[in-house]
Amino acid sequence: MLLDTASLYFRAYFGVPESVKAPDGTPVNAVRGLLDFIDRLVKDHQPDELVACMDADWRPQWRVDLIPSYKAHRVAEERPEGPDAEEIPDTLSPQVPIIEAVLDAVGIARVGVAGYEADDVIGTFTARAKGPVDIVTGDRDLYQLVDDARGVRVLYPLKGVGTLQVTDESWLREKYGVDGRGYADLALLRGDPSDGLPGVPGIGEKTAAKLLAEFGDLAGIMAAVDDPQAKLTPSQRKRLDESRPYVAVAPTVVRVADDVPVPEVETALPRGARDAEAVAALGARWGLGGSLGRLLGTLGS
């Protein structure tokens, strides 16, 4: 089981009241909410291995170099010396180091790699996996990793993590008309305002799905632009032709990397706290009692 950790703690932050605070008054709603999420996921799905994948760089420069608008609207502060700061709620950012410390003390593998997003870490672990993989995320970009033959599916939270949309290839075909491999091409063509991806003007989701059904993949669609006999409307042909510079670079930006240099980590689900003393101290300092206790009880059972 691979967790898109930021996606989950954002959901926890907005799903748990900010009145949930540590003894010193610091909000810990995202911390406790995430621990409750992990507890429920482990109870319901009983994974053998669990990795909390992190955004070491939420907006990698190599993606920005290709498409400058990539996530540009979410930049809170430009930092020449390192990754730009992302715009996140003031009371969430102080909770992230607490989340990291608790995961480390409990013994849940936590992996982020400089220059890469959590999606890329997830893509790499998925590519290396020898068995089935469940990816837990609220980010549809990861639908591109769905692969029935390998048992790779996305568990998309609809309400907390108690109600999850199990995304496999049959669901993708019914919803979007594509399989996992085709989803990246679909996303690239239609664009994604939330990520600052412009897409091809005039090519929405339904048109993109029809073009992929007709021509197979992005390369097939672009080959059709040069084929006078291909079934493209004049406006589609014109817009695709004018979008060649975007189409040439967008696959590298949109597709999740699967060759990230992830460190060697112990991914087995812990059966008890790795550092019981640290867990006790963190639980007391931040008032994590019930949430932390439930997770440890579930791991121990």
Explain this structure to me?
- This protein is an alpha/beta fold and 301 residues long.
- Helices cover 46% and strands 10% of the residues.
- The chain is built from 13 helices and eight strands.
- The chain has helices spanning 5-15, 29-45, 61-66, 95-106, 118-128, 169-176, 180-190, 205-215, 218-225, 234-242, 244-254, 276-286, 289-300; strands at residues 2-4, 51-53, 75-77, 85-86, 109-111, 133-136, 152-159, 163-167.
- β3 and β4 (85-86) form a beta hairpin.
- α2 packs parallel to α13, α4 (95-106) runs antiparallel to α12 (276-286) and α8 crosses α9.
- The relative contact order is 0.17.
Radius of gyration: 21 Å
Number of helices: 13
Q: Can you tell me the overall shape? A: elongated
**How many strand elements?**
8
* Beta fraction: 5-15%
Q: How much helicity do the residues have? A: 40-55%
Main-sheet strand order equals 5-2-1-6-7-8
Q: How widely separated are the two ends? A: 18 Å
Low-confidence stretches: none
Average pLDDT rating: 93
Instruction: Note the run of SSEs as H and E.
Output: EHHEHEEHEHEEEHHHHHHHH
Summarize the main sheet: 6 strands, mixed
Summing up helix and strand content along with how strands pair, one would put the structural category as: alpha/beta
